[in-house]
Amino acid sequence: MESLNDRIVACRRCPRLRAWCEAVAREKRASFRDQTYWGLPVPNFGDPAAERLIVGLAPAAHGANRTGRMFTGDRSGDWLYRALHRAGVASQPESRFANDGLTLRGALITAVCHCAPPDNKPTNDEIAECRPFLREVLESREWRAILCLGSVAWRETLRLLGAKPLPPFSHLRVHRTGGAKVVASYHPSQQNTFTGRLTEQALDAAIAEWLV
Predict the structure, then answer these.
(1) CA distances from 85 to 40, 143, 144 (A)
(2) At what angle do helices 124-138 and 151-160 cross, to 10 degrees?
(3) Residue 45: exposed, middle, or buried by beta-carbon count in 10 A (0-12, 13-18, 19+)?
(4) Whether residue 165 has a cis bond before it, omega within 30° of 0
C-alpha cells in the first residue's frame, strides 16, 4: 500500500485536474489563507491490514486537497468520521488535519479519483485514468466488505469486480460478488446532508451493514 500511495501522489495523468488542484492550493480559501495546501493527488488512508474498504468519489478542493488526507477538513469528512467513530472504526470523531492522530481499525479509505475535480465532477476520461489505482486496491486482498459512497463509487467498484449486469444504485443496496459484500450509501456531501437525503441514522445503517 505504501508503494501504491507513492505512485498515486506522483501521478500526473490528468492535466486539467493537476492544474485545478495546484491553482486552488495557490489561491486558497480566505479562511485557510495561512495554511499550506497539499495540492497533490491524495493517497489512500487507513489500516494497512484492513479487511474492509470505503470508496469515495474524489477529494474536496478545500478538504483533502488542502489537508492531504481522505475526507479530512470538510463537512463530508465530519459526517463520515463521526459515523465511523460511533461504529468503533475511527479512533476519534473529527478529522481536521493529516497529523491529528486519527487512526482507523480494520478499514481503508480510497477514491474513484485521487485529485480534486472542479465542481466535484471528474470527467469519464479522468475516472478512466485513475481506474488502475482503484483496481489495484480491489485486487490487493480478499475484501470482506466494501462501502461505496455514492453512485459513481458503486458503479466503478462493481464494474472492476466484474458484476454483470451492474445493479442499480440505491441507499442500503447490497450486492455480493466473489467473496466481497458491497454496500451502497448516499455520499455524505453537503448536497445530500443539507437536503435530508442522507441522515446520520441512514449513514449509520449503511456502516452497520458494512460491518456485519
Answers:
(1) 27, 21, 20
(2) 60
(3) buried
(4) yes
DSSP string, 149-163: ESHHHHHHHHHHTT-
Q: Can you tell me the distance from the alpha carbon of 12 to that of 165, in angstroms, rounded to the nearest whole number?
A: 33
Please count the CA atoms within 13 angstroms of the CA of 121 that sit on its side-chain side.
Answer: 1
Please give the model's pTM, rounded to 2 decimal places.
0.97
Q: Across the 212 residues of the chain, what is the mean pLDDT of every consecutive 10-residue run?
A: 97 98 97 97 98 98 98 97 98 96 98 97 98 98 97 98 95 93 98 97 98 96
CA dist., res. 157 & res. 136, Å (int): 11
Would you say 87 and 207 are in contact if contact means Cβ atoms under 8 Å apart?
yes
Strands 107-111 and 45-46, sheet pairing: antiparallel
Structural domains of the chain sorted by starting position, each given as residue range(s) with its CATH number in brackets? 2-211 (3.40.470.10)
> What are phi and psi for residue 175, nearest 5 degrees?
-135, 135
